[in-house]
Write a structure and sequence with these properties.
Strand order of the largest sheet: 1-3
Number of strands: 10
Number of helices: 22
Helix content: 40-55%
Radius of gyration: 26 Å
Structural class: mainly alpha
Number of domains: 2
Shape: elongated
Strand content: 5-15%
Largest sheet: 2 strands, antiparallel
């Protein structure tokens, strides 16, 4: 069973990498994904019960794709225990691999850890934050953490290395020509931060095996609560010699000082105890009840109230942060004129409640224009996707971001609909535009505009460019192509955002009806 578990871990982690490669490499010229598989590329986010529960509570809406994918994980946990952490979780697999490669000489003691209950308090904080329509799960969810690390900290350097290899060797050029990676080098903000977060979780293995899983993971805490009712249990027969080998080998310190006893919410069914038992007295079998299988949690009322208070405080702070303020005459955030969201994104107050900062939309963006937000949306919108036209525009023939959003913070849309999906408006800076400022000829913005939103009028005897706000969707291609750099003479601003309108209302507005 332990060999089978390791095989499943390898397959699970390989699936994560496979889906990752699909989202960054297999995009046709029309902007449509060629998946080559029946499973959606965001499968891991769909099956994550913590993301599903917190997002649906925050959004006050049932998200069907997350509900139907997440329920089987919960059901199997009720039947077979906290298997997800030991068998499927890719972050858990990475920690096991690090433990085998880096910390193989170290074996932690089997005694209980002083911070074991911290993950439950973090879970309570995450859920109470969601009750007040705010997001906190993205800080601590393991699927999000490892995907962000791959996207922001590993993807770019790996691509850079492969590009160097391809340029040095003709035999390696297939890595680029066969669309394994995009032609242009990708860049992301704060890549070093997300790398340090992931590296810190791995480094914590020096304290104890799976330190993150034992003490900090709220997803593990949620599954641990559900697994208290599991029908599959660890049982120890009378032939046990109490040699203590199982205590030393237990990855989660789930075995008590008496090796016959086990703390149910901590066991991840790794089968290390059954493999190491010299008398084969340890078994993991179906059982309705067992005095050896302890389900109680030693949570204190004070710590629980403190966790709930932290959740309420976080929700209150992010909802009253300057980045949450709306303009008086519209529902546009006033925190930053550069708050440009992906096309199809929900209205801002709903978008930040649903977005789990998984980075899927950012890594699938073919122009690299979607970046994690810094201060554009305040604390409430930290790390949510924003379009940075200076890096890359929202290309006309693309709807990839809407296809990989598990929480539907970006609503599905067809490419033909983009003509009437307004995410901003381009504005010409007449003080720096060479046509307005110098009277010279320049047609770059007009020639590159995908929506023919530029028109010309004679002013002071010279033809000068103007922006038709009914046609301009805020895609940013004009800002990206403008020869005036580093600050373009035509820039996209968020006051043209019409996300508070329905699709039909935006279409009628664009047509002037």
């Amino acid at each position: 069973m332990q060999t089978l578990r390791r095989l499943v871990q390898i397959v699970s982690f390989g699936a994560l990498i496979y889906f990752f490669v699909l989202t960054i490499g297999q995009a046709t010229a029309s902007g449509r994904l060629v998946f080559g598989t029946a499973a959606p590329v965001d499968t891991f986010f769909r099956i994550d019960p913590l993301l599903g529960l917190s997002t649906m509570v925050a959004a006050r809406k049932v998200i069907e794709v997350m509900l139907w994918y997440g329920l089987p994980i919960v059901a199997i946990t009720v039947l077979a225990g906290r298997f997800f952490c030991g068998w499927i979780c890719p972050l858990g697999a990475a920690l096991d691999a690090a433990d085998a490669v880096i910390y193989r000489r170290r074996r932690s003691a089997g005694r209980r850890q002083p911070y074991r209950n911290l993950k439950y308090y973090l879970l309570f904080a995450v859920l109470v934050t969601a009750v007040f329509s705010a997001q906190m799960a993205y800080f601590l969810d393991p699927i999000v953490i490892i995907t962000r690390a791959l996207t922001f900290a590993i993807y770019g350097p790996v691509q850079l290395g492969l590009r160097a290899l391809a340029s040095a060797s003709d035999h390696a050029s297939f890595l680029m020509t066969n669309r394994f990676l995009p032609d242009d080098q990708v860049f992301y903000r704060m890549g070093i931060l997300f790398f340090l977060i992931f590296a810190g979780i791995v480094a914590a293995n020096a304290i104890s095996r799976r330190f993150w899983c034992r003490n900090l993971c709220p997803l593990g805490a949620l599954l641990g609560l559900v697994s208290r009712f599991a029908l599959v249990k660890r049982l120890v027969g009378r032939t046990c010699r109490e040699c203590g080998r199982c205590l030393r080998e237990c990855k989660m310190a789930a075995i008590c000082d008496d090796p016959k006893d086990c703390v149910a919410p901590e066991c991840i069914y790794c089968y290390s105890c059954t493999r190491t038992c010299p008398t084969s007295s340890t078994r993991i079998v179906p059982a309705l009840s067992s005095p050896q299988y302890h389900t109680e949690l030693s949570l204190t009322r004070r710590r629980t109230l403190q966790a709930l208070g932290i959740g309420v405080a976080w929700a209150a702070l992010v909802r009253t942060d300057w980045g949450a303020k709306m303009a008086r005459q519209s529902k546009i955030r006033v925190s930053s004129p550069q708050l440009i969201r992906p096309p199809g994104a929900l209205a801002e107050e709903k978008f930040v409640n649903r977005c789990v900062r998984c980075s899927e939309c950012m890594k699938v963006c073919p122009t690299n224009g979607l970046q994690p937000a810094l201060a554009e949306a305040g604390i409430e919108g930290l790390w949510t996707p924003v379009l940075v036209p200076k890096i890359g525009e929202c290309t006309q023939n693309c709807n990839l971001c809407s296809k990989v959003c598990s929480t539907q913070a970006i609503q599905p849309f067809e490419i033909e609909d983009k003509t009437y999906i307004y995410i901003g408006t381009a504005v010409i800076d007449r003080s720096s535009c060479i046509v307005w400022n110098s009277g010279k000829s320049c047609l770059v913005c007009d020639e590159c505009c995908s929506y023919h939103a530029l028109y010309w009028k004679v002013v002071d005897g010279i033809r000068r460019p103007f922006v038709n706000e009914k046609k301009c969707t805020g895609c940013g291609i004009c800002e990206n192509a403008c020869p005036i750099q580093p600050q373009a003479a035509i820039r996209v601003f968020s006051f043209g955002d019409k996300r508070q309108m329905s699709r039909q209302e935006q279409k009628r507005w664009g047509r002037g009806t």
